[in-house]
Amino acid sequence: MKRLRGKMAAAFLLEVICLVVFGWFLMQMQTRLSMENQRENTQEKLDTMQQVIDDADAVAAQNEASYDEVYQAKAASVAYMANYDQSFAVTDAKMKELAKLMNVNNILILDREGKLLAKAEKTQADYTVSRYNQLRTVFQTGEPSQAFEVEIDGTVRRYYGAKINEKQQAVIAQDPEELEALQADTSSWRSILGKISVGLKGFCFAVSNQDYTFLYHPDEELAGQDSLDAGLLAEDLADNHFAWMTINGERFYCGVKSIPADDAFVVCAVPEEELTSSRNITVAVVLFIFFAVITTVVVYSVLILQEQQKEGEAEKGRGFGYNEVLGRKLLPFSGVGLLLVFVASFYMQTLFSLSLRSMSNRRQVQEVGDTLAKNQEDMELVTAQYNSRYLNKCQTAAYILSANHQLWTKEDLGRLSQALGAEFLLIFDKNGDEVVSDSSYVNFSISDNPEDQSYPFGSLLQGLEYYIQEAQPDQISGAYCQYIGALLRDEEGNADGFVQMSVIPDKLENALQTTTLPAVLGGVKASAGGFAFAVDKETQTFSYYPEERINGKSALEYGMEEKQLRDGYCDYITIDNQKYFASSLETDNQYIYVAVPQNRLMAARLPVTLASGGACLICLLLVFLLLTFGRIPEGKMVEKKEEEEQGPMVDVVMPNGSKGKSEAAANRWSNSGIRWKQKTPEQKIAALLQVIIGIFAVVICFAALNKEQLFESDSIFRHIIDGNWERSLNVFALTGCILILCVGMVIVLILRGILQLLSRAMNAKGATICHLLRNLVKYVSVIAMLYYCFALFGVDTQTLLASAGILSLVIGLGAKELVSDILAGLFIIFEGEFQVGDIVTVGDWRGTVQEIGVRTTKIMDANENVKIISNSAVSGVINMTKRNSHCYCELSLALTEDMTLERVESILEQELPKLKEKLPEILAGPTYSGVYSLSGSNVNVRLSAACNEEEKAILGRKLTREMKFILDRYGITLNSASHS
Amino acid sequence: MGGRRRAVSFFICLVLAAVMAETVWAAKTLTVGVRDDIMHFGYLNPNTGKYYGLEIDLAEKLADKLGYDTVEFVTVDPDNRKDMLLTGQVDCLIAAYSVSETRLQNFDFSPAYYTDYSSIMVEKSSLFTSITDLVGKRIGVLKGVNTAPKLVQKMIEMGLMTEDDAKGTILVDMDSYGEVSKALEEGMVDVACMDGCIARAYMEDDREILEDKIGEETYAVATQKDSELSAPMAAAVQELLDDGTVEALIEKWN
Fold first, then answer.
1. At what angle do helices B245-253 and B230-242 cross, to 10 degrees?
2. Which chain A positions have a beta carbon within 8 Å of B53's beta carbon?
3. Domain, as residue range, for B245
4. Chain B touched by A660 (CB under 8 Å)
5. Do B47 and A213 touch (CB under 8 A)?
6. How far is it, in rounded angstroms, from Cα A581 to Cα A593?
7. ipTM of the complex
8. What's the CATH code of the domain at B72?
9. Fold that domain A382-512 belongs to in CATH
10. CA nearest to B42 within chain A
11. Which residue, among A466, A459, A454, A468, has the nearest Cα to A385 in the 3D structure?
């Protein structure tokens, strides 16, 4: 016994060690896996970082160029006016007027040395100093000067010069506020890094490589703060370095990219909890399964050893060796357990890589949607901006041409066009006929046909101030250009025809280029080789796909299905025989998808499963060896004789000849459980497993019911519970089913427990109803859960309901018996024909009612044999449970001369009352009921006594016995006796 | 009885005070005069209140080598740094302080840890490309530093002007580098001439440093003449130079 205890302790200790080691191993592996995944993801971001920054810089340069071009053209047009406009004068008033017309801050006229000749607004600057040498380049080149900025006392001005003549130049000074705002939008750290998403909750930030301050951090308060103070380590900040970093106490898994050109490190950070939250649940589930398996194995073997010990107490074993009996019994357990761990591990890996992926896909596609929506706005904004720029040019032209009819020549218009940066100008008279132009169009007239491109410009003849036409290919020349018209006025200020300007909007086109669908989707870099594509809603063709040959083709032809073309789709899709895991989003006219190739998704699943399975195998092997090797008890003891104690366990011979133990049938039906000690090891293990599974179910149920409190909205658990996945045969549906089963099981268990408690407290009728209800709960819950699970697997529940109707019809026909049984059962209960515990006779069977089921009634006779009768077959019931039964005892007495009937009667009168004390079964009596037959000298008398129905038989026997004694004492001959 | 108890507690207080004083004295602090306006050398970040730069790192490494527990940084500027060190308000200067004959008379210098050249910085919009363009221009320099004489010397050497005839070239003395930079931005001066490390700190996209280099400056740690610190400081700097630490720091902050 002592040795067994030692072994038990060792086994449990080993179990604990195995659990810890296995848990640690899983944790490490899972962390590494998460980290590697993240690292790969982050690396992809880092690799594109330089490109992203360069692109942003390129856009910024482009913005600057187009901005400068506009103001250079304005400077040029001032110079043009100075040369050709008769009304032009080098005065402050004129400059003010022009500044207002051209919508600029200041216009200056300088001489060659930089002396100020005229200005629109006051300025402190001294333009003669070398700082402004750039302006004077115009005198050498004749071209507008390069832009430069000067800040004086906080006022920033951007300068553009244009040569008027050898002595003078026109200068535009503009506050570059708009440009700066534009640049902040396109090339600031915020605009670049703010758009990059890392993982689910990760972000990018930038740290100066000089003083280690945050150049950019999503948390505004941190910007400008010392990153080393916040918790970063200087040695972690190295190019392509991955490390755990701490920022204000929060741990992040970070990848670093050095951007030397900007003196900065860009860091992609993912919060630790994002990596661990998925890890923890995965590890917990696999570890739990492992725990269940190893506990079962250990407990089972301990139980068997205990049994063996009990049986072989006398002999002290035969020395050390392999305990074959135990081994044989343990092996299947261990095997099944190992398989379970394999399956659980594989399953969890699948579940989590898929759910992580679907969440990040969903987030990415959402981002794409947001970007597209924002681009739409941007597009309108940019277009409006360019339109106003072009319009300003055109109005400037109109201003000049209104006052200077001498400029209405082809040559002068050509110069003006050049100064304005326009393609060409056309002047129309009041009738819409061309007067003059520097283009190749001659004698052009505004069309009356609404179909024609020039038609809308007719509105300018009706007094409209200006008209901006959308850029389009020219109807005549086919060149892509944009027309703007502005009203011309005569000296009195009345409308006098209009000037039409043509510009080639290449700058606008460039600016809009970055906002188009291909540009946005092409820029999406999902991790693990993911990409984005779009399907047109109407035509169901790919409106964008990274592969050129698929672009524009029908989505359905390339393997997509109708049901996949919808908002919020999240499952596998097949395109061009490649399987992808994708999430979708609906926009105004597209379905946007982010897809990741399947093979990249599951790369780690098998190795991880094998590794955890291998670790589990080693642990199990260790435990197995520890348990099976030891002092072996004598072999014969295995076949020891059953103790003849009448327990509920009986030996049964299985159909295949093997012997087994089984609970007596009566026990199985009765509610009374078996005492723990009487159980076989297998039953104990089964009970243990039940408890473990129960705990598991309760935990899951608790987690599912308290999901809001326990899990954040973007945790994986929530993802599964909230059901944001496709209803079909997939791992999420399977998990959903398991969750449902857990919750259902717990609820049913609780309900049934309550009913059982109630039934104990209630009378027989209540107990019967409770019993029925328990059964009902069982069946209803099973059907409900099945139904729900079918729904999760994507079976159409409507059809299912309809088929349930058909099903019931089938049952109605085919299982008429069953229905009548159930109905009969209900009648038995509600009419109270009999109840559980009643003593009844049905047909030739007399016994106690054990159970009234939904379908059958079980009646147990005195020999504890149970007859199961269909409820419908329960007829002609004699319910013998009345208040008092009567036990009759008939005695056949031989009368003699001495022993007359009178004497006998007096003896009975005397003796019978004493019997009541002797026999406790007697409730009343016994009484002498008289003679009921005579034959010769024989007289048959009857005695009766009140008793309980169930004690009637025994009382009859006892009464007869007592009567024999009494009669013998008085010398009365008893010929025969019977009782009923 | 009461009196004796009081005496005992007084004694205990005394001992405690002595022990505390001991611990305070035991923590040796090196007070270093550093610049707060030279990015990459000695720069005080107003957001964080901390100093950054090559000289800050160097000071910390030196203090470590010399067995000090903590380093206290004190901001010095070209005007007061001499007095600060002379009066002992700082133990040493690690403040882009270049070695020169006159300074050697007043202070001890460690081996040089950095060699720099004076730079000529111009605005791109002035279109100046070489030192020859500077004749007759206003040159912004910091008061009290020896870059200006060197520039003049260089210009004389190049024959751009003579000692008697500056050809209109004016040196404009200013109080701080910030002011020099502002004057350059506003066009009040045409060029700015300052130490290379400082010029780099004021570099912007719109500015340019002319390729002409004038005067070589070597920066070293200055200590009081013949002070106890001089020898160990020189040795420590030499050690850091020998084991490549200084090189690594220059690499880091360049």
1. 70
2. 211
3. 27-113+220-253
4. no
5. yes
6. 10
7. 0.73
8. 3.40.190.10
9. Beta-Lactamase (3.30.450)
10. A211
11. A468
